[in-house]
């Protein structure tokens, strides 16, 4: 019984210590974050990661940013021109991001 109590105590202690633990940088990110990173400018990448290259763990989202996301953004821009409004007013960036995340998740990421 004494060992059970001490093991339980140790587990609780470790759990409390790890509340502030950071997530491993090797852990694969979700589609939302990956689509955001894969769509960053060189300056944004440099500021966040210290390099203007997309880190390997986010690479899987590049195909969605360059594919369905880009296509949706172009469609939205054309819609903005026809409606004589702006891409910002139509939320083109948000729409493109949503499509990126959706396709990424549909593909099982």
Structure overview:
With 109 residues, the chain is mainly alpha-helical. The chain has one domain. It is 66% helix and 0% strand. The protein contains 6 helices and no strands. Helix 2 crosses helix 6 and helix 4 runs antiparallel to helix 6. It is globular, with a radius of gyration of 21 Å. The protein starts with a helix and ends with a helix. The N terminus is likely disordered.
Report the major sheet.
none
- How far from one another are the termini? 44 Å
- The helix count comes to 6
Number of domains: 1
Taken in chain order, the helices and strands follow as HHHHHH
Alpha carbon gyration radius: 21 Å
Number of strands: 0
Strand-pairing-aware structural class: mainly alpha
Q: How much beta, percentage-wise? A: under 5%
The averaged pLDDT comes out at: 82
Helix content: 55-70%
Report the principal-axis shape: globular
Low-confidence stretches: 1-24
Helices and strands, with pairings:
Elements: H1 2-17, H2 31-38, H3 42-49, H4 62-82, H5 87-90, H6 92-106
Helix pairs in contact: 2-6, 4-6
Quick summary:
It is built from 6 helices and no strands.
Main features:
109 residues, 6 helices, single chain, 66% helix, mainly alpha, disordered N terminus, 0% strand
């Amino acid at each position: 019984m004494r060992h059970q109590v001490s093991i339980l105590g140790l587990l609780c202690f470790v759990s409390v210590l790890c509340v502030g633990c950071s997530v491993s940088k090797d852990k694969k990110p979700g589609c939302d974050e990956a689509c955001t990173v894969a769509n960053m400018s060189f300056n944004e990448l440099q500021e966040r990661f210290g390099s203007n290259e997309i880190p390997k763990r986010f690479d899987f989202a590049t195909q969605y940013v360059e594919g369905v996301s880009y296509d949706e953004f172009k469609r939205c821009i054309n819609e903005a021109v026809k409606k004589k409004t702006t891409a910002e007013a139509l939320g083109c960036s948000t729409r493109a991001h949503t499509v990126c995340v959706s396709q990424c998740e549909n593909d099982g990421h």
